[in-house]
Amino acid sequence: MRTGRQRRAESIVRAGRPHSTTLTRRTGGALRRLGTLGVVVLPYLLLVGVGLLVTAATRTEVMIKLDPTFRFWLVAAILGIPYLFGFNIFERLLSRLCPTPQQWWRTLLLTWLAVLGLLGALNLLVAFTMDTVTWVNFKLFGLSGLFWVSGLVLVFMHYSRRPSENAHVRA
Fold first, then answer.
1. 143 vs 130: CA distance, rounded Å
2. d(Cα 154, Cα 107) in Å, to the nearest integer?
3. What is residue 158's DSSP assignment?
4. 35: phi > 0 → left, psi -120 to 50 → alpha, else beta; which?
5. Which of 146, 125, 150 is nearest to 134 (CA)?
6. What does the buried/exposed string (b/e) look like for 47-80 if buried means 16 or more CB atoms within 10 Å of the residue's CB?
7. R_g of the chain, CA atoms, integer Å
C-alpha cells in the first residue's frame, strides 16, 4: 500500500512539476503551505514571544523600557538582513498588489529601516533621560503616532511619485 507521501510524489511527476526540494520533503511541504508572508512573519512572532517571556521573567523597569527598542530593531534586522543578500521583503510580498519600479521598493525598505532605527533610538533617549511616567506617555502616544505618521507619509510619497494615468494628455 502506498503512503500519502508516495501518492503526492506520483501526482507531482504526472503533473510535470519538478520534484520538491529536500527541505520541502523534510517538512512535508509546510514551507510551501506557509507562503512568503508566513516565512517572514513566523520568525518575528517567535522572537516577539521570546521577548515577552524574557520581559515577564525579569520584571525590571529597565527591561520593560528596552522592550520597544528591541522590537523596532528586531523588525529592522528582519527587513535589513535579507536586503544585504539582495532580497527585498517588501517587493516580494507586495509587488503583485502594487506594481511599482524596483527603485521605489528599495526606497521604501531603506526608509522603513531608518524610521525603525530612529524610533528605537528615540525610545532609548526618552527611557533613560526622563521619568517613567513621561516614558509611558511617550511610548503610548509618541512612538505610536510617529510610527503611523511615517506610514502615511510613505503612502503619500508613493502616490505622489506614481505617474498619472493621463500624463500623456496635456490640457
1. 15
2. 10
3. H
4. left
5. 125
6. beeebeeeeeeeeeeeebbbbbbbbbbbbbebbb
7. 22
Going through 17-140 in order, the beta strands assigned E by DSSP cover none
- Contact between 72 and 116 under an 8 Å Cβ cutoff? The reply is yes
pTM: 0.66
User: 8-44 pLDDT, tens per residue?
Assistant: 666 655 555 444 444 444 545 555 565 666 666 777 7
Gap between the Cα atoms of 164 and 169, Å rounded: 10
Using left for φ > 0, alpha for ψ between -120 and 50, and beta otherwise, residue 59 falls in: left
Beta strands in the chain (DSSP E): none
Residue type, position 29, single letter: G
How confident is residue 166, by pLDDT bands cut at 50, 70 and 90? very low
Q: Which DSSP helix (H) or strand (E) runs through 153? A: helix 144-161
Distance, CA of 77 to CA of 61 (rounded, Å): 25
